[in-house]
Design a protein that fits this description.
single chain, alpha/beta, Double Stranded RNA Binding Domain, five-stranded mixed sheet, 3 helices, 32% strand
């Protein structure tokens, strides 16, 4: 898989966290700049993210956090899957790391084939 760099996303650890999340699921990824997609790419991942600012409970210090993440996986010009993350209200997860947020999104996007091998086939009968 190839990940297209989005220059407007200013979170420094975003792409490394994205690559690590895929790597943990056995998916190798390469990073490229827009318009320079490597010839061997089977699928292309594009992303967008927004940053917001807030304070943790009992703190006056304002810190930045990822408030929105959009991931889109494209193959042969067709969208295969999309994933969206958005913080809401005063949820404490809004201050989670990019790695934690991306890992959760990738879990929803990727089906690990080894999971199918571990579970026995089930048959459902209806009458």
């Amino acid at each position: 898989m190839c990940i297209e760099v989005n220059q407007t996303v200013s979170v420094g650890d975003f792409v490394p966290a994205l690559q690590l999340a895929f790597d943990r699921r056995g998916i190798r990824s390469d990073v490229y700049n827009p318009g320079t997609s490597p010839a061997g790419c089977e699928a292309r991942l594009v992303y967008n993210a927004a940053i917001d600012y807030g304070s943790r409970s009992f703190s006056d210090e304002t810190i930045q956090y990822l408030s929105i993440i959009d991931l889109t996986l494209i193959q042969n010009g067709r969208i295969l899957v999309t994933a969206h993350y958005q913080t809401g209200g005063l949820n404490t997860d809004r201050f989670s790391s990019a790695s934690t947020k991306l890992s959760g999104l990738i879990d929803r996007m990727v089906v690990n084939q080894t999971d199918f091998r571990r579970q026995p086939m089930q048959t459902i009968q209806t009458s």
